[in-house]
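Review form for a predicted model. The reviewer records the input and the model, then writes brief findings.
Reviewer: anonymous (R2)
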Amino acid sequence: LLESETDGYSLAVTGRLPLTETVAVYGKIGQFWWDSELRSAGFQESFDGQELTWGGGVSFQIAPNLDFRLAYDRLDVDLERDEIGPIADGDFDSKVDLLSAGLKLEF
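Model under review:
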């Protein structure tokens, strides 16, 4: 049994395309920096890396300074077999798909 725990942060550039006065779509692309710890049957190892991240969404203007947003983001954590060592049956590729909803307040 292989367990992993990953923490990270990202920085991205966002482009926005208004569809109407109150609805817009947006896309983003950037970099994801991560630290991961793998554990299996007495073996424990830490890794870090950086990967491409991307996403997009739609925003709906509720008030002049308030938007409701629905978003999708993709984060990857990829390790090659030679980086993992003895616990590897192959490469370790973890995809994180994040769907979120939120409010954006401008002031």
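Findings: Residues 2 and 40 are 5 Å apart (CA to CA).
Further findings: The mean pLDDT is 86.
Recommendation: see findings above.
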